[in-house]
Amino acid sequence: MKSFHSIPKHIAIIMDGNGRWAKTHGLPRVQGHRAGAESVREAIDACKELGVPYLTLYAFSSENWSRPEAEVSALMSLLEKFLKTKLDDLMKQNVRLQAIGQIERLPASTRKILADVMELTANNDSITLVLALSYGSREEITAAARKIAKGVQDGTWHPDEITTELFASQLDTAHIPDPDLLIRTSGEMRVSNFLLWQISYAEMVIVDKCWPDFRQGDLFAAVAEYQKRHRRFGSV
Which domains does the chain have, with CATH numbers? Predict the structure, then answer.
């Protein structure tokens, strides 16, 4: 990719298709999730090369808790292994790790490792990698509305002071810019309860490949498509 103009400040990715990839290759679903870990590295490397400051990955949704217990357990083990084995790489690449979602629902061992890695990488400033874990946008928006309602009740805010900016400040993503580009793999055409507030004006690119087959070139191509578009934000 030669053109580096109009680079998005924030790319969000719905990493879809691990199960279908595994089925296509005659493997258990968990093998698809394992294979997807390499694609995470590819996405990080591509964002670093382009100078993208923020990358958010939809790693585990609030709806994923309804999957078979064995698969959920395997996913948590894979997450822990990823955090343990990739810490050195995150430090070498100067990557800061953050997380959004209902983190309190994760197993205690997973929460501990996640907290440790976030603390150790807190001062890294090359790129911020945000993992959406036990995340659901409707739940996030509901929680924000609940916090604001409580604030009105206790006198912190007057109803007339409730603006879109105030509401956004109560979301999990208050500390990061809204995504400019949303990528979804596996060819599916839906947003799956992911960053519903934050992607209001994001450009969407659908990639036909399943997530384990996603490589740097696919992210470069998505950004190239993004660069062709004229973002109007509701104007003309």
Answer: 10-226 (3.40.1180.10)
